[in-house]
Amino acid sequence: SAVRYLIRELGCFPTSILLNVRGEMSFTEEKTHAGFSVGTLDTQSDEFWIIDGQHRVESLKRAISRNRDFNDYPIIVSILQLPDRFDEMLLFYIVNRRQKGVKTDLVYRHLQRMLLKKGEEWLLDLEGKRGLARGYAVEIVDILNKDPVSPWYGKIREVGEAKQIDHIIKDREMVSSVVDILGEHYFKNMPIKSIAYLLIDYWNALYDIYPECFTAPKEFSMLQKPGLPALNKLFIDVYGIALQSGDVSEESMYKVLSRLLEETPAHPVVDFRYSIGVDFWSFDSGPVYGVTATRQNIQDLYDNVQEKIWLAGR
Question: If I label 177, which of 137, 187, 195, 313 is the partner at 20 to 30 A Cα–Cα?
Fold first, then answer.
């Protein structure tokens, strides 16, 4: 750990800690040395906002608590003067976006803020199509989570939010599968709110078919893995079938999804030849396909329910 490194090896941090002063500051040069200016930095406030280096600061605090000699431990800092908190967030994102230690859900939220603050073209230039899609996906997930007409209302835990009894998943779990939806040609030029409310209609249709999965969501896999990502992928197929019928609505998607309850004896996988009832999604009694959260099984589950819907619709 960083604490052990400091205490046992008397090391020094090789990179600077990035700080910001939100108010006015001035620098008085006293001398120069080897091309550097030495002097006094005067700030109107004693507050320095840490943009990057929080873990190093906390490690140093713990080292000081064990050995007071570290009170005078020197650290390298870079001090900026940025009045806007958005600029602090942007610099944090740029510094850390390639680091594995940064939580994915935090990255998603940063992308959303950049999208709202700077706009589509700016974010597209910075992060490409994938980054832009992630920013929009967060917007969709927020609508799913905050509109009372949504069956996901209050069930998605945002990054930094205290866990509540109704929370089932973290926002990154929903965001990652919504990103894949945005990549489909159906939705390329569709307004983000329209996509969000189509998803609400879709999940309300699933609610009508499997109400138990929503009233006791922690007992079933439908609103977790593997159900959530597989069924969000299935949304693309269900939307396409409804679109071909000329009626894209909650009712039309309900009719398509009701095919999951039909028997399909021609299905190549035995578990999907029979009606997929609520027990299929039960953590206690469901088959491997219905409850295993591996990436491969999520893909297998999607492939098989997709096949079942097409077979039942013939």
Answer: 313
